[in-house]
Amino acid sequence: MSIAPTPASAGSSAVGSRLKSIIGGSTGNMVEWFDWYVYSAFTLYFAPHFFPSEDPTAQLLSAAAVFAVGFIMRPIGAWIMGIYADRKGRKAGLTLSVTLMCLGSLIIACTPGYESIGIAAPALLVLARLMQGLSVGGEYGASATYLSEMAGQDRRGFYSSFQYVTLISGQLLAILVLLVLQAVMSNAALEQWGWRIPFVIGAMLALVVFRLRRGLAETESYKKAKATGAPQSGFLQLVRNHPRETALVMLLTAGGTLAFYAYSIYMQKFLVNTSGFSKEAASQINGITLFVFMCLQPIAGGLSDRIGRKPLMVAFGVAGVLFTYPIFSALEQTKDVLTAGLLVMAALIIVTGYTSINAVVKAELFPSHIRALGVALPYALANTLFGGTAEYVALSFKDAGWERGFYWYVTAMIGISLIVYLRMRDTRHQSLIHED
Fold this sequence. Notes:
Layout: H1 7-41, H2 43-50, H3 56-88, H4 90-110, H5 114-117, H6 120-151, H7 156-160, H8 162-184, H9 187-192, H10 197-214, H11 220-227, H12 235-241, H13 243-273, H14 279-307, H15 310-333, H16 337-355, H17 358-363, H18 371-387, H19 390-399, H20 404-423
Helix pairs in contact: 1-4, 1-6, 1-8, 1-10, 2-3, 3-4, 3-6, 3-18, 3-19, 4-6, 4-10, 6-18, 8-14, 13-14, 13-15, 13-16, 13-18, 13-20, 14-16, 15-16, 15-20, 19-20
């Protein structure tokens, strides 16, 4: 005779299954972002191979332009794979995105330099980044939706914050690989061929994640949407039925994503190219501050489950407007590693009010049948316009002789998002996620 599970054991099993899915989805997200950020972490080493020039700033500008080009594909990836994840399932979307990322990393790892194949070298680099941009465009919407739907109502802010924990951990892993290679290889070897190693690592890890994601559980929100015959996801349905939410995602993302890329991705170049730190010192500052930043995400996400999402976003907006220019100006002048680290940490603490909850806020704005597309596409558009171009805009200001214009640009965009934060509803109390 079979014995039915008690409510306690059933509840424990449900929690265990939920945690397993969140951990599984998060691990895959980490590898995706490792592959994406390796490009930025190793730009200082591989740029001369693809873009011959006597001017280091010109080389960085060319590499940053390709980084921005990768973002052009992100809205396309968000559109195509957002619809795919809404129609075929979150798990299917996550599996497809990691496959594309793997192929992009392999192309970069194997492409000869400009001296060997000429213009084909930067052309293949662009192709690889276009593929990776397509992947990341779909990854964000699928992973943000998956984690938000799997989290449960009372802990949604906490668990969905792991979307950025894994995003940052992917970036940290890229920096860690950089630090290890800097320690065990000569600078000449690293510049000649060692920079290819992390792209090989990324491709191999992506293959492991492919197998992992094939075994993930599907979310109840997606299953219920399919069972009830909800309308199919599509671009026209998104802009026709959810125009306000679509615009809201773009506007609340603009300042947050620009600040994140300015404080993290571009910061490594800024510390070398403007502050005058060595590559090794800049990498160490970047790595330590990002680790602390990563640890702050669940704390802030859990806080949003208690006080709401809106207070955190408003706090980011106010502090970002007040302190972005002073922080960058001070970094420009300092030559002390500790002082630089504290200033970068202050900037990252400020942006935590956005990064820790941006995924769940967007997911809570849309019904399940169109949620992946609604989260992914407007976010990707804003990310392409403001996040993907952050390095290029910053270096262009520097090249034009007015570097501080970039500080004002970041401040202004955070200010625009702050207006949106002040006017929008608190999605913690008016969420459209109903999976329980």
